[in-house]
Amino acid sequence: MAVPLPRPHRFDVHIATGSLLGGLLLWGLGLATRPHTEPYVLLPGRWPVLLPLLVMAGCELLRRTAPRIALLIGTAAIVLDVLTQGNLVTVLMYTDLMYAAVLYGPPASAHRIPRITGLLSVAGSVVPFAVWREPEALLIGVVTGVVAFAPAATGLIVRNHRDAAEAARLRAEQTALLAEMDRAQAVTAERARMARELHDVVANHLSAIAIHSTAALSLDDPKTSQEALVVIRENSVEGLAEMRRLIGILRDSSGDVEPAAAPTLDGLGSLVEGARANGLDVTLDAGQGEVPVPVELAAYRIVQESLTNALKHAAPGPVDVALSRRDGSLTVSVISPYGDRDAPRAPGSGAGLVGMRERVALLGGTFEAGPEDCPDGKTWAVRATLPVHDPVEGDIA
Predict the structure, then answer these.
(1) What is the Cα–Cα distance from 355 to 132, expressed in whole angstroms?
(2) Considering the entire predicted model, what is its pTM?
(3) What is the C-alpha separation between 153 and 148, in angstroms, rounded?
(4) Domains of the chain
(5) What is the pLDDT of residues 264-288, one digit of tens each?
(6) I need a labelling partner for 122 at 20 to 30 A (CA). Which of 5, 107, 132, 396 fits?
């Protein structure tokens, strides 16, 4: 079943129409490229000139949609035109077909046609000169080069520039896409970082406030209520200070607020004292030495979140916090009595373990948390191993 050719491009229709009208004008004026007395003009007279002219104009309609077919038919038409007195417009249309075949044809044809026409131009100069030994014989190769090789070479140059421009455009689009992906990933990472910071800052203090306010409301004891209010006030002040620190970090570029320093492991003592004030029996063993700032912040937040979880979920009993540095890594462990409660003492978002796991993963460490069976009873253990070398992804918060 024959496949119909696609419709000609509008610009090709204009070229074909204009060329045909120009050729008919020259034909009507009696202007030919060769006199009828030339020995190789086998079809003298005016009317034979019209056939190659009409065929070439029809080929111009296919110059973009079917360039190879147009060139093959156009080659037959130009040979026929040579046997007549000739029409200049027919020759010009053939040069355009040669140009279009290289520019719009397949890549293999685009590189093959200039080589073939170049060889024909050389052969058209050397062979006739070798046979006839006349300088005028060289003109055959010159004419072949002008009609065939020059348009093909021009088409190849234009095609190479077009392909280079298209490749540059694609590279620019890919670069823009990668930049947008990097920006989206950076925004997502920053949002996750701020979510971890806000959770760790707010959850600890608000959990203590919720627990002690519940105790103050449920017990009709002025002394207990007074102690609870003291703890509530301390946690409110500390939580407000932490929130101001975060706001300072967010507004650092504006210069309105001077951001405070991030918490360090030197502040674990105060963190443990606060947990004890909230009712936890905490022991601290911190012999870690100097560690990088990202590792220090991650370890502090892991201890802080673990104490917050112990405050909300743990059963009465000692909570052991230990930090030690060995074999190029900092080990953090927080072990608390396992609390089998129907509901936590204070509501939570459930994002604490997720945030701790993310912090450890960003530093290339290992993290595990879950219940363990011990001789003294069931416990909940949080263990993290943090490499103390430079982190993989820069400054981790």
Answers:
(1) 92
(2) 0.55
(3) 9
(4) 10-174 (no CATH), 265-397 (3.30.565.10)
(5) 788 888 888 877 877 788 888 877 6
(6) 107
